[in-house]
Amino acid sequence: MLDNHMYILVGKTAITTGDALLWAMFMEHENRQVDRTEINGVSVSTVFLGLNHNYWGGVPILFETMVFGGAYDQYQRRYATWEEAEQGHKEAVALIEEEQRVDDLISNSLKQEDEPNDGSSQGNY
What we know:
The protein is of the alpha+beta class. The chain has a domain at 32-114. The chain has two helices and six strands. Strands 3-4-5-6 form a four-stranded antiparallel sheet, covered by helices on one side.
């Protein structure tokens, strides 16, 4: 098992703990949500993971952003700090908003092509 793999938050700062009971109580009872955004049925969620996901050593990876729904369903990015997680959440939200703008443009363009613009298309066969 990894040394120093369990973390809790004190404010927005992750600290390591070797106390499994303290860690379990934190994970069960504390709010680990960094941010959550809903955009037209697509959820962007950023959370504190509580376990180091950098299995190869180096800087602990403790936060994760995921997208649920839409074209980027299951998109995932991980971060070392709360601040990186906040920035990553904003980037994921921007990605979803841009994707939805493009979808809206395409949808509106297709609607315009389907609608006769002046009624002159009747009887021109």
